[in-house]
Amino acid sequence: MAEENLVQPDLAFIKGVMDAGGDTLNCCYQCATCSVVCPLSTPESPFPRKEMLWAQWGLGSKLAGDADVWMCHNCGDCTKYCPRGARPGDVLSAIRINAIRYYARPKALANILNSTGGVISTVITAMFAVLVTAFLWSRYTGQAFPIPKGTVVYHKFLTVVPIDIVFLSLAAFVSYVSLKGIIEFWGDISRGAGLPTSFNGHAVTPAWSELFPKYMWPAIKEILSHERFKKCGEIKERATGHIWVLWSFIILFTVTIVVMIQADILGNIWPNAGFETPLVWYHPIKIAANIGAIMIIGGTWMLMNMRRKKTAEGIMKSSTQDWILIGIIFAVGISGAATEIIRLINIPVLAYPTYVLHLGCVATLFLALPYSKFAHLLYRGTAYVYQHWAEDVKAGKAGFGLEKPTTREKM
Amino acid sequence: MSKKVGLYIYTGDGIAEALDIDDLVKLATDDLGLEIVRTHSDLYSPEGIAMVKQDVEKEGVDGVVLAGISPRYVYRAFDFPGVVVENVSLREMVVWSHQVNPDDENADKMKEHVQELAEDYIRMGVVKVQKNESTEPFKMEQVNQRLLIIGGGVTGMTAALEAAEAGYESLVVERESELGGWAAKLRKQVPIGPDYSCLVSPIAQDLINKVKANDKIVVKTNSEIARIAQFPGEYRVSLKETGSKSEWDAPVPLTDEEKLDEKGNELSAEDQKKIYDEKNEGRRHYMDEDPNAEICGAVVLASGWKPYKPADDEFPHLAWGDPDVITNCQLEEIAKKGKIVRPSDGREVKSIAFIQSPGGSKDDSDFPYASAVTSLVSLKQAKYLREDQPKDGRSYIFYEHMRTPGQYEYFYKGLQDDPGIFLSKGDVTKVEKNSSGGLTVNVDNTLIGGSISVEVDLVVLATGMVPTTRDDAVVNLAYRQGPAFRDLDLFGGYCDSNFICFPYETRRTGIYAAGGVRRSMTIEESMEDAAGATLKAIQCLKAAEEGHAVHPRTWDFDYPHFYFQRCTQCKRCTEECPFGALDDDEKGTPKLNPSRCRRCGTCMGACPERIISFNDYSIDMVGSMVKAIEVPDDDEDKLRLLIFACENDAYPALDMAARKGLSWTPLARIIPVRCLGSVNVAWVKDAMSSGIDGALLLGCKFGDDYQCHFVKGSELSKTRMGNVAESLNSLGIEAERVKMEQVAIDDYKRIPEIINGFMDEIFELGPNPFKGF
Lengths: 411, 773
Fold this sequence. Notes:
The complex is a heterodimer of chains A (411) and B (773).
Chain A: H1 2-5, H2 11-22, H3 33-37, H4 49-56, H5 60-64, H6 68-71, H7 77-81, H8 88-103, H9 107-113, H10 116-141, H11 154-157, H12 160-192, H13 208-225, H14 238-269, H15 284-313, H16 320-345, H17 348-368, H18 376-394, H19 403-410
Helix pairs in contact in A: 2-8, 4-8, 10-17, 12-17, 12-18, 13-18, 14-15, 15-16, 16-17
Chain B: E1 5-10, H1 15-18, H2 21-31, E2 36-40, H3 46-59, E3 63-68, E4 84-89, H4 91-95, H5 107-130, E5 147-150, H6 154-165, E6 170-173, H7 204-213, E7 217-220, E8 223-231, E9 234-241, H8 269-279, E10 294-296, E11 298-301, E12 305-307, E13 325-327, H9 328-337, E14 351-355, H10 372-388, E15 394-399, H11 408-416, E16 421-425, E17 427-433, E18 439-446, E19 450-456, E20 458-461, E21 465-467, E22 511-513, H12 523-546, E23 561-562, H13 572-576, E24 582-584, E25 590-592, H14 602-606, E26 612-613, H15 619-628, E27 641-646, H16 650-659, E28 668-673, H17 681-689, E29 694-699, H18 713-730, E30 738-742, H19 751-765
Parallel strand pairs in B: 1-2, 1-3, 3-4, 5-6, 5-11, 6-7, 11-22, 13-20, 14-15, 14-20, 15-16, 27-28, 27-29, 29-30
Antiparallel strand pairs in B: 8-9, 9-10, 12-21, 17-18, 18-19, 23-26, 24-25
Helix pairs in contact in B: 5-15, 6-7, 6-12, 9-10, 10-11, 15-17
C-alpha cells in the first residue's frame, strides 16, 4: 500500500502556484465555504476545497489529473466568501496555469510563452521569419522588397501560398502538441477520478462514433452558449467580453479558412475569377471579417476593463499569464484592423511593416495555444467532454463497449 | 438565648390574593406567640426596610422572619448588626408553585392545602430563627502574610512577581538547581501576546532575572516539600534537598486495602497502628511540630507537569522504540542544541512527521494528556525544521484535532502559511522503517482523499503533559487524611476540586493550583493562571485574618462546634470532611482547624452522636424545623413529604421552576440545607417519628462530573440514606419512604416530575404507620 499511496510534496510546484497568483494558498483551513458558495461545484465532486489542500501539499500530478480544476470559471464567489482570505479562485487560476505548463512539451516553449519578455521576443522572431519568407518570395515574384511598388496590395508582399507554408506547418506542430497534451490529460483525469482502466492500464475512451454526437457536441453547445460561464456569481459581466472574443475567433477562423480555400485553391485554378484578395468591402466574407475584428477588439477591451475593476474590488487577481493572453489577442485585433485601415489609406511604408507585425502576432497566438493560458480552450473543452463521458461511465452506461447496448436500446 | 422574633408578611405579588393573610397573622400571634407581626404590600421597598429597621431599633427585635420572596432574590438591604434574618419563601415556594384554578372542582381543597403549606413554612422559619445562636468568629493570633509557591517555572515565577506587586512576600521552592522549569528549556516558544503569528524567543530568562532582582521573593532551589503542616494563615513548611529523605516527610495513612487482612476483614486498631508505623518508619508524627519550619500563610501550587513517556510496549504501530521515533519533549531537547539531527545516525533531518493522535483503528482520541498545547507545540516544532532547512525541509502534521483556541488561531494561520508545513487530518495506521533508512508513515482517511504514505527522517509523537500531582503528593500535607489531594483520579490527576465553579481551588483550603498542574496550558495561559491563583491565596489570607470561610461561603464566620463529652472517636467526621479540615489525637478525637474549614456541614451530617453543630446551623435547629411541621394524623389526603434541598443547585432549581409557573404537590415541605452532606440521618428519623410520610433529598449530581460545591455531599448522603434504611425497617417503616435524587441547577423542568412522582409513591405506600404516636 505504501508504494502506490506515497506522496512527496513538490515544493517547486507550490512555489509555481504561489508565483502564478496563488500566494494565498496556505491560508485555507478546509472549512469548505468555497465549495458551498460555488455555483458550479457539484455535490458529487465538490471543488475548490480539495484542490486547495492538494496544492498546499504540492501534489502537482494529482491536480493535473483533476478535471474539476477546469470546471471552475473563476467567478470569484469563493474568494469573496472565503473566511480566511485564501482566495480559492485565484489559486485555481494559478493551478490551471501550472497544469498547462505540466502538459506542455517542450517545457522551454512554455517558459518563453508565459513571460512577457518571451512573448515579445516570439513576436519579433515571428516577424523576422515573415520578413525572411517575404524576402525569399520577392526573389521569386520579382516584387520590390521590403516595400513593393504601387498601391498597397499585401499579396504583392506575400501571397497566401508562402503564408500557408509557414502557418500550416505551425498549425501542424501546434495541433500535435495540443493533441498530445489532451490525450495525456484525459488519461490523468480518468485515473484521478478512479474510472476503470483496461487490462493494460489505459484509460477508457469513447468509441469514435460516439465521441462527437454524444459527448463533444453537448460540450460544444455549452461552450458556444457560455452556459456554465453565465452561472458565475460575482463576475457575470465577464461572460459578455469572453463570448465576444470566442465568437470573433470563430468568425475570423472561418473567414481565414474560406479565404484560404478561395485564394489558394480556387484562385489558382481559375485566376482572375474574382477570388483574389483584397475583397471588396461589401463582400459577405469581408463584412464578416470586419465584424470579427470589431468583436475581437471590443471583447478584449471589455475583458481588460473587467479585470482592472474586479482586481480593484478584490474579487480576483490577474497574473502575468492573464495579461499576456489578453495582450496577444488584443495585439492581433489592433494590428489586423490597422493593417486594413492603412491599406485603405494607402501608405505603403506603414502598411507593410504593420502587416508583418500582424502576422507576427497571429503566429505567436497560434503558437501560444498549447503553452499559454490560451490552452484553457483545450483543457476546459476536454474536461467538458470528459465530464459528460464520466457521468455515463459511472452510471454504467458507457465504457468497455457498454455504450453499444445503450445506443441500441435508444434506437 | 431567647430571641425577640418579628414576623413580616409580604402581601404583594399575588400573595394576599392566594392566601388568607389574617389567618397567618393569627397563627403567628396566637399559636407562635409572636408580639410583632406585620404585613406590608411592598416589604422590600425602602419603606418596608424602614419598618423593620424601626422594630429592630425601637422594639429590640433581634430575629427577623421575612415571609415573602425567596432568599435568592433578597440582598443585603435587611442587614442589621446582630440581627438574624430568615427569608421564608411564600411567593415562590407557596403561591407561584401552587396556583389554584378557581374553576377547578377541588379548588377549595387545594386552597386549604396551600394555606397549610404557608402556615408550616412560617412555623419553620420562626423556629429556625429562634434556634439560631449568636456566633463569634475564630480569630488566629497572627496570620502569616507570606505565600509559599511550589515550583519555579513560569507559573511559579509569575505568581511570585504578582504577589510582590500586590505587596506580599513569597517563598519559591524549586526542585531543580535553576529556576525556569520547562520554559527555560525551549528553543523558541509560542507567543504570549500579539503578534501571535510567529515563534518568539523564550521569556523564561527575563522572568528569572526579575525574580532574582525582587527583594520580596526568596528562592530555594534544589529543594522540595517534606511536609506542610497546620493550616492557612500559619502553614509550617519543612523543606528538604530534592530527592532526599527527611524525618519531616509527611506520613502516609493506610489505604483501605491496607486496613484489611487477607480474608478481607478489617484489622484491629493495634494491628493497623503497627502497619502504619512500619509504613512511616523514620517519619515524625503528622502533628509534630518542626521547629525549623518556614512559616507561610497560603500556598500557590505551581509544580507543573512532566512529559508523558510512553511505556516500552505502547504504540507498537507507531514504531515506538525505534530511535527515530521520539516525543515532542525529546525533539525540543535536540532542537535546543542546534539543527535537528536524527538520533540514530546524527544526520541532519530533512523531513519530520508529527503525529497528534495515536490513530490505529481504535478511535480518534489524542495522546494521553494531549491538548491544545500539544497542537501548538507541533506547529512550533514544524517551524523549527523549516528554520533549519528552509530550502527543502518538510514538516507533516497528521491530526485528529488541531486545537488552537482564541488568539492562537493566528499562530496556526501564521505557521500554516509556510509552504513546507503540510497539515492533514487523518488516522495514522502504521509507522515502519523503509529501505532508504527513514520511516514511512501510513495515514488513512486523510483530507487529501483516502490513504497516503509519506517518507520521513524522523517521527515525533505529540505526547501530553502529565500533571505532577498524578503520581506524587507534591504538597505533602501533614494532615489526618494524608499528604496528597484526594480523588484526583476524577480529573486524570490534574489538581482541581470543582473545575467549573471554582478555578484554582483545590480540596485543601489555602492551597491554590495554577498552570500545568491544573490543566495543560501554554506559557501565556500559565502566567494568567498564576495571577488568578495568587489572588485567591491572598483572599485566603484575608479570610483567615477576619475569621470567615473562603469561597463559596465567604459570609460564614461561624464554624463547627463539638460536644466532645459524647464523642465516641468513630472518626467519621475526620474521614469524611472533604477538605481535610479535621485532624485528630492519638485516641481519634477530632481536632478542628477552623481556617481549613469551608462550612459545608459534612461533619455535622456524618456524626452519629449528633455532637457537631454550627451555632447558626445545627442538629437541633433543623430537627426543630422538622418537628414544626403540622402533621394531621387522621386525614389520608393530607400526607406530608419532607424535602431537604441543597441550597446551591436544587433550591435554585426549585425557585426557577416556581418562577416558570411549574407546580408540585402542596403536601411537600422544603428545607434548604448547605449541602446534602450536612443532612444528618437523625433529621430523617425525626421526620419519620413525627409522622411525616416521606423524605426526599435533592442534591447535586455526583460521580465523574460531579457538581457538588463540597465535592462529595450528595454522594455521602446517598450512602448514609442507604444505611438508614435498615434502622427504618426495624421500626416497621418502609425504606422506600426515603429517597435521594440528583438535580442540576438547570433541571427545573424535572422538579414537578421528581416531587410529584415521589409523592405518588408515598400515596401507594399509604400513611406513615407512626402517625399519631
